[in-house]
């Protein structure tokens, strides 16, 4: 009887020591409180902005392509817009995954709300991990959207399927994700810094934006360079 009592007490203590949201009441209370839905909207805010921006860029690209076709009726231009849009969306999702895998998990420089709730205890670490998971869920949805957009191009004709457009769109999408997410989460909402444990977090935040702008410009250059080349010239 004594052994059973000791074992039960040990299991209870171990059970309470887990940080999972289904077995630790303190973790649950820190996640499912009055701030849950506001926090959920905050996690989604960057993706809402990115979605609107992609739609706007797609509109501008389609308008530019149509103007080029109308101005040069004797030149057969393959349409670069569908592949550009699909690769841009896919680049945004993959960029989010790379950010989460490398900076959140491997290096552990920061977590989703680590500036507001430093992950220095089991509870705060678990809460940050939960919101990291929500962030990854949104990036997964974006990746699925990009895959569907690519799949829809399989049987369409008169589409430019250049590898440069694909690579440029992926790179531009990655850079675009970093810029929007960095501005919103690092600078406006101050959810986390690129590197929390440093004497100069601003240096890392602005450096992150600088590298991301270069990625965006390089991606745009690759896409735009290919778009200047017509498919053929009709005689």
Question: Could you describe the 3D structure shown?
Answer:
- This protein has 7 helices and 2 strands, in the order αααβααααβ.
- It starts with a helix and ends with a strand.
- The protein is mainly α and 235 residues long.
- 71% of the residues lie in helices and 2% in strands.
- Strands 1-2 form a two-stranded antiparallel sheet.
- The model is unreliable at 4-14 (pLDDT under 50).
Tally of extended strands? Answer: 2
Distance between the termini: 96 Å
Q: What's the story with the biggest beta sheet?
A: 2 strands, antiparallel
Q: On the 0-100 scale, what is the average pLDDT?
A: 89
Work out the helicity level.
over 70%
- Pairing-aware structural class of the strands and helices? mainly alpha
The tally of helices reads 7
Strand content: under 5%
Which parts are unreliable, with pLDDT below 50 for 5 consecutive residues or more? 4-14
Order of helices and strands: HHHEHHHHE
